[in-house]
Structure formats: C-alpha cells, structure tokens
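Reply to dn_fold:

You asked what the input looked like. This is it:
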Amino acid sequence: MRITPHDIRQQQFSSKMFKGYDPQEVDAFLDDVAEDYEAVLKEVALLKEQIAAQEERARGVTERERTLQDTLVTTQRLVEEMKNNARREAELILREAELSGEKAVEAARGEEGKIRADIMTLKRTRRQLVEEVMATLERYHRILAADLPPGEADASAP
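and this is what came back:
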C-alpha cells in the first residue's frame, strides 16, 4: 500500500510519558515531508504524461519513417520499372531502325541492280545504233562510190 501525502499529514504517534518527541516538531516535520512527497508525486505524474506524449510522438515518427521507407521502396521499384521499360523501348526502336535500314539497303540494292540493267541495255542499244549507223554509212558510201565515175571514186578515198 502506498502512502499518500494525506496519510502523512494524518499520522498520529502515541506519546510516552517521560521521553517523547515534541508534537509540534513532529507535525511540522510530517507537514514538510507530506509537501515534499506531494511535490514528488506531482512531478512523477507530470513526467509520466511527458513520457506518454514522447512515446506518442515516437510512434508518429516511427510511422512516418515506415511510410517514407515504403514510399522510397515503391519509388525505387517504379524507377527500375521505368528504366526497364525505357530499355525495352530503346531496344524496340533500335530493332525497328535496323529493320528499316536493312529494307532501305535492300531497296537501294534493288534500284542499283535495275540501274545497272538499264545501263547494260543502253550500252547494247548504243552499240547497235553505232553499228547500224556505221552500216548505213557504209551502204551510202558504197552507193555513192557506185554512182561516181571510176576516176573520182579513187580521189575521194582517204
């Protein structure tokens, strides 16, 4: 059982006949002790309230810290996902660019083949035209040579 300041103030001592304590001194001392004890109890109650408030604040801080930690983990996960998505998208864009480049190269090679074929056709046509022109000139030359008197034909020959 705890002693309260009220118990200290109400304490009565039996007095002895011959040697005893002065009742006024004992009462004054008991009053002083009761006041000090009461002050200590009030201080203890105040400290308990402060401890409870600090514990509540600590719980709040711990909860905020946990929330921040969760947010940080979530943010890190999202950043990793974003990096992975960006990496995959970059790889896809690169593959598409490579395919597009390969198609362009193939188209250019096809066009080059077509141009080479056209050049070969043009060269054959030119050679044929030159041969035809030469043959025509040769024919005209023979015709002219046949129409000229025999002495003039020798003078016109180179």
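Residues 56 and 98 are 62 Å apart (CA to CA).
Hope that clears it up.
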